[in-house]
Write a structure and sequence with these properties.
The structure holds two protein chains of two kinds. Helices cover 74% and strands 0% of the residues of chain A. Chain A has 13 helices and no strands. Chain A has helices spanning 2-30, 34-37, 52-58, 62-94, 100-110, 115-128, 135-160, 163-171, 176-187, 189-205, 208-213, 222-227, 239-268. The radius of gyration of chain B is 25 Å and the shape is elongated. Classes of the chains: A mainly alpha, B alpha+beta.
Chain lengths: 275, 371
């Protein structure tokens, strides 16, 4: 018994260290002066704490611009993914129409394409639509992976709602839209929060599309902007700024997850909706 | 308020199973009608066709004289109470009841008035702000009723509304439903497999089996004048006893000849059988309360008591005839013979039934007799 507890504790610490270690390292490094950063001796904690890297990151306002871009793109992605995803899931779950099964499987298949495989095609498409280097273009491309996921998770929700609930709404004189808006959507709330958050995080962190489809700092999102950080000379990698920026962009995510953690767990264990 | 009329309704489902076949009936305005039958008999399908949740393959549905066969539920002005309540889990009791009115764009004050009215009738005024999950089964059922009542619909539909409640609550809600109907006088269609509910609530019972109507009658008539073997066996608990035999003529009299005994048919039964002109194989049907025990000496029919069930006010006596036919009789506790006793058996002949074993038809069916 004692040994089991010990084993569990050790395992937990290992997992936590593996998952949180790199982030912790980034946080601590962001407070170290540059000369400590390049000190070959190992220091976990900074000898002198400094905010210089944070000041550098926010100096000039370009990084703030990147943050706003990320907010706009992630926000747009979440709103569109939820709006379109919930409607699609509702229709697939509650109405029969020819090709329903094919459509459902097709949506699942969509999530399996590697990003790099569709990159060049998507680039051409966005260029034709004049959406290169725009927020809208990024949002559109992000819907490619957030939408199928959203549909798939919400589908499970809508499917598990009892049929009588729908019929009660019909008897009450509800239109399909009323049924969706007043009955189905509120009951799928945990699912909406989960899929919304995960879509938002995916969009916030996305790098490859953002790198390819943006040309300048007016649209560039945070992950790309960090990669473009330049040091004082071409031969210097500005680790301090990179670390500080990484910490800054992670904070909103931590805040969101902390805020909604109960809903996320609920959402991932979907289908448990009972009257 | 409105009359409900179904004309030759047949429903065949996608996979080819027949749901109901050739259903025709008229429920007069203000009547509480019960559709009764074993599970899978098509009673719920019939109700759903009236509701508009199911479209009949052929036939027509009329509500208040309007043909509504192809109208969606919302345009039929009917309300339905579901077996598992189907309350909206995320809405308060008040909102659950108000939802149907809001969908119909009823003014806010009117909604408020109607919800409070219904809550008062049902005694759930204190629960209006609660969520369904905070309510007991009986309270949920009341809210489901309230959701129907506030609508002031032309017809109320009930789909086994009491089957999820415990026995005690069921009896209470049954009485409440009866009271509610007296108060509202609305046309109601109530589906159940429970004959006690049917007998106590229904002014009119539509008994179904295997997708077809077996008999439409008032509760007592259904009990005393079953049209066929199915009705006779379904209504009554314990059910009617059946004995194999034949109808024959003996010395100019019509008799029923069973296993080792002969029953002289009384005049009115004789006439009924005679007008149908049926002789030969027949099934004798006798209700448990129409069987009494006498001394075995000289009795035509002798049986051995196997065991009995004491219910307090009465005893159910299970016995076996010499030919091995088992039956159950109902007696007062003080008149119950002991287990293992040999007894003579007599039937109240004016209340027996004779059935055609082939078609199941009741050869002594005579609807006016007991009304």
């Amino acid at each position: 018994m004692r040994r089991r507890v010990l084993l569990h504790t050790v395992l937990h610490i290992l997992v936590a260290a593996w998952a949180l270690g790199p982030f912790l390292w980034a946080v601590l490094s962001s407070f170290k002066p540059s000369r400590e950063l390049f000190d070959p001796r190992f220091h976990l904690f900074p000898e002198t704490w400094t905010l210089i890297h944070y000041r550098t990151v926010f100096a000039g306002g370009t990084f703030l611009r990147n943050m706003i871009n990320s907010f706009v793109v992630a926000g747009g992605t979440v709103i569109l993914a939820l709006a379109m995803g919930s409607l699609a899931a509702f229709v697939i779950a509650r109405f029969t129409f020819p090709g329903r099964r094919t459509l459902t499987l097709g949506i699942l298949t969509l999530t399996m394409f590697p990003q790099i495989a569709i990159l060049s095609g998507l680039f051409l498409l966005l260029r034709e639509l004049h959406l290169l280097n725009t927020h809208a273009g990024l949002v559109l491309s992000y819907l490619l992976f957030t939408l199928p996921f959203t549909v798939w998770v919400l589908l499970q929700y809508f499917r598990h709602l009892p049929r009588e609930l729908e019929e009660a709404a019909w008897m009450d004189g509800a239109s399909p839209w009323d049924l969706f808006w007043y009955v189905m959507l509120p009951l799928a709330r945990p699912g909406l929060i989960t899929t919304g958050l995960l879509s938002g995080i995916a969009a916030w962190n996305e790098f490859l599309f953002a790198l390819t489809f943006t040309m300048d700092n007016r649209v560039r999102t945070v992950p790309v902007a960090i990669a473009f950080f330049g040091g004082a000379s071409p031969y210097e990698i500005p680790w301090g700024s990179i670390m500080a920026a990484s910490v800054v962009v992670t904070l909103p995510l931590i805040l969101l997850v902390a805020l909604f953690q109960r809903n996320i767990v609920e959402g991932l264990t979907a289908g448990a909706v009972r009257g | 308020m409105a009359e409900v009329r179904l004309e030759q309704i047949t429903k065949i489902f996608d996979r080819g199973n027949v749901g109901v076949e050739d259903i025709t009936f008229t429920i007069p305005d203000g009547t509480f009608a019960v559709i009764l039958g074993p599970s899978g008999c098509g009673k719920t399908t019939t109700l759903r066709i009236i509701a508009g949740l199911e479209t009949p393959t052929t036939g027509e549905v009329f509500i208040g004289g309007d043909r509504v066969t192809h109208l969606p539920p919302k345009d039929r002005d009917v309300a339905m109470v579901f077996q598992n309540y189907a309350l909206y889990p995320h809405m308060s009791v008040y909102d659950n009841m108000a939802f149907g009115l809001r969908m119909r764009k009823i003014p806010r004050e009117e909604i408020h008035r109607r919800v409070l009215d219904a809550a008062r009738i049902l005694g759930i005024e204190e629960l209006l702000q609660r969520k369904p999950r905070e309510l007991s089964g009986g309270q949920r059922q009341r809210v489901a009723l309230g959701r129907a009542i506030v609508r002031h619909p032309r017809v109320f539909l009930f789909d086994e509304p009491l089957s999820n409640l415990d026995a005690k609550m069921r009896v209470r809600m049954r009485a409440e439903l009866a009271r509610l109907h007296r108060q509202l006088q609305a046309t109601s269609v109530y589906v159940t497999h429970d004959q006690v509910e049917a007998m106590t609530l229904g002014q009119m019972i539509i008994l179904m089996n295997q997708g077809r109507i077996q008999q439409i009658a008032a509760p007592l008539e259904l009990y005393h004048q079953p049209r066929n073997l199915f009705v006779a066996g379904f209504i009554g608990s314990p059910p009617m006893n059946f004995f194999q035999g034949e109808i024959a003529e003996e010395k100019g009299h019509l008799v029923f000849r069973g296993g080792g005994y002969i029953l002289q048919l009384p005049k009115e039964k004789r006439n009924l059988v005679q007008t149908r002109g049926r002789m030969g194989d027949a099934v004798l049907g006798v209700r448990p309360e129409d069987i009494s025990f006498v001394s075995p000496e000289g009795a035509d029919l002798v049986a051995v008591v196997e065991f009995h069930e004491t219910l307090g006010n009465e005893v159910l006596i299970y016995a076996r005839t010499e030919r091995g036919e088992t039956f159950v009789a109902r007696a007062r506790p003080e008149q119950s013979p002991p287990d293992g006793a040999q007894v003579g058996v007599t039937f109240t002949l004016s209340r027996i039934h004779l059935f055609d074993p082939g078609t199941g038809e009741n050869l002594t069916y005579h609807p006016q007799e007991n009304i």
